[in-house]
Amino acid sequence: MAKDSHLLIQRDRDIIRIEFLDKNILEEALIQQIGEEIAQVIDRSGNPKVLISFANVEHLSSAALGTLITINNKVRQKEGQLRLSNIDPQIYEVFVITKLNKLFQIFDTAEKALSSFK
């Protein structure tokens, strides 16, 4: 785990819980680092169950959405499950506009997301 990580990663039984530490996920370099960090976690687990919480996030760039799609594809390749939670209403609006709310399983709270895993 990089010491300058922008993520809080915890294992909750067989579920990987990921939380962003930054309020703004806008810079290309930051997004790339986050993407690589999450990819490493996914690569190390067989059919991963991943919950990404956006509880701290206030701003998200479209590049970050692209990274989420990549993460989703990685999880699916490993026959895992990905859930998103605690997305700010303004950010959620972007998911709706881009129809990504259809691609991702999004929950109001981490608890609801956790109970949705099979």
Describe this protein's structure:
The protein contains 5 helices and 7 strands. The strands form 2 sheets. Strands 1-2-4-6-7 form a 5-stranded mixed beta sheet. It has a two-stranded parallel sheet with strand order 3-5. Helix content is about 45%, strand content about 25%. It has about 120 residues and is of the alpha/beta class. It has a single domain, classed as STAS domain (Transcription Regulator spoIIAA, 2-Layer Sandwich).
Stated plainly, the CATH topology is called: Transcription Regulator spoIIAA
Biggest sheet character: 5 strands, mixed
* Cα end-to-end separation: 28 Å
Under the CATH scheme, the architecture is: 2-Layer Sandwich
Per the principal axes of the C-alpha atoms, what is the gross shape? Answer: globular
- CA-based gyration radius: 13 Å
Going across the biggest sheet, name each strand in turn. 1-2-4-6-7
Brief summary of the model shown:
This protein is of the alpha/beta class and 118 residues long. The protein has helices spanning 28-43, 62-77, 89-97, 100-103, 110-116, and strands at residues 7-12, 15-20, 24-25, 49-53, 59-60, 81-85, 105-107. Helix 1 (28-43) runs parallel beside helix 2.
Describe the structure using short key phrases.
118 residues, alpha/beta, two-stranded parallel ribbon, globular, 5-stranded mixed sheet, single chain, Transcription Regulator spoIIAA
List strands and helices in order, with pairings:
Blueprint (H helix, E strand, L loop, with lengths): L6 E6 L2 E6 L3 E2 L2 H16 L5 E5 L5 E2 L1 H16 L3 E5 L3 H9 L2 H4 L1 E3 L2 H7 L2
Parallel strand pairs: 2-4, 3-5, 4-6, 6-7
Antiparallel strand pairs: 1-2
Helix pairs in contact: 1-2
